[in-house]
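Supplementary Methods, section 5.1.

A reviewer requested that the exact input to the structure prediction be made available. We therefore reproduce it here, unchanged from the version used in the analyses.
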Amino acid sequence: MTTKNDEARAARLKAALRENLRRRKRQVRGRGEPAAGQEAAGQEAAQEEGQVAAEDAAEPPDDRDPAPSDAPSS
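The structure derived from this sequence is encoded token-by-token as follows.
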């Protein structure tokens, strides 16, 4: 004996499974070529990383005393 709740649950499950299948198909199709937004974000991150590296290289050397050596001091 099926009740109204069982029928409603079956309909919701069917719809959820159908949507899940559609989502998975979109994911598989999207793996072949990156989305425009993702590609642009990746390029921006690479540019920012390059700028940080350039800034680090441009810093003057540290003029503090070097680390103490192993030789005993007099």
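Residues 4-30 form the longest helix (27 residues). These observations are discussed further in the main text.
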